Amino acid sequence: MKRESSVRKKLEKVSEIAEIHPDYGPAASHSEHKVGDRITSIQEGVICTGEILWVAAASEYEGRPYLPMHYIVAPASPHGFVHIVGPGDVVASRQET
Questions:
Q1: How far apart are CA 21 and CA 28, in angstroms?
Q2: Could you count the other beta carbons within 10 Å of the beta carbon of residue 78?
Q3: Which of 2, 51, 71, 90 is most deeply buried (CB count within 10 A of its CB)?
């Protein structure tokens, strides 16, 4: 949890300065879920839970396929990598209070 909160604070600071994250690109203008929400999703047939760190706009980079709007999610496990989660992969959520 400590790792998630420090990463989240850094991302919030970035989003306050500009709506573009250096690693994840521009922020989406609209989404069902927001930064800080905890979501459960299905990733390659496995149920995963984590906190949304960034809501990325649809993007297309040279040499890479088009990527629709997606969430960057820190897994609940402290030893995991961030997940890229599409809105259709979210099966449950709990909004930040």
A1: 11
A2: 10
A3: 71
Task: Report the C-alpha gap between 92 and 82 in whole angstroms.
Answer: 18
CA 56, CA 2: separation in Å to the nearest integer? Answer: 23
Please spell the DSSP secondary structure of 31-73, one letter per residue. -SS-TT-EEEEEETTEEEEEEEEEEEPPB--TTS--B-SEEEE
Q: Pairing between strand 38-43 and 25-26?
A: unpaired
Note the pLDDT tens digit of each residue in 63-83.
778 889 999 999 998 888 899
Distance CA 87, CA 3 (A): 24
- Evaluate if pTM is beyond 0.90: no
Alpha carbon dihedral 13, 19, 24, 30, in 10-degree steps, equals: 120
